[in-house]
Amino acid sequence: MLVFRFAAPLRRWIEMGLRSACVVLMAALTIAIVWAVLSRKLGASVGWYDELVSVLLAWVSFIGASLAVLHGAHLGFDNIADALGVRARLGLLVLREGLFFAFFATLGWAGLGVIRMLRGDTLTSLPWIPVSLTQAIIPIACALLIISEFLMLPEKWAAESAPKSAKHEAEEKERLA
Fold first, then answer.
1. 3-state DSSP call for residue 122?
2. Which of 15, 33, 159, 171 fits a 20 to 30 Å CA distance from 53?
3. Are 69 and 152 in contact (CB under 8 A)?
4. The dihedral of CA 39, 42, 47, 50: what is its sign?
5. Alpha helices (H) in the chain, listed in sequence order
6. CA 27, CA 3: separation in Å to the nearest integer?
7. What is the pLDDT of residues 112-166, one digit of tens each?
8. Measuring CA to CA, which residue among 34, 63, 60 is closest to residue 49?
9. What are phi and psi of 129, to 5 degrees?
């Protein structure tokens, strides 16, 4: 497929962007926490801490989840799939991926509805930040998760097409050694 030929360079570019976003968000989260702790110790507690940190944590979690999907580091049941034949594993892969794409497309669509519904609302302690901006992570993350999973398809297809997955063979060698 022509699209898969561009998957590797696009995957590297997206990975770099996701890593950078995670670093920036983690730095902002750290600065906000340190600021809040120091302010409290100095007797001048800040009121915006809880709201901002919870938003930053949500953003870093969803962006990090997209990065995990791009590395194939999300939950799976490899031993069950490895017990099946190649055709059954490929069928299971198609079913799994279809469910994944359908779920996150639906969630992303619902997230857009949430953004429309919250238009005009702002954070309580930071009234200059619109709630729709904080909730934008839902459709953004869903799009990133779908793109990340799509970019992993060639690698997953190759792994499921093999008689045994490389991970299963490595585990067997480790167990026998």
1. strand
2. 15
3. yes
4. positive
5. 2-5, 7-41, 49-70, 78-82, 86-117, 131-135, 137-161, 166-176
6. 35
7. 999 999 888 988 888 898 999 899 999 999 999 999 999 888 888 887 787 765 5
8. 34
9. -105, 115
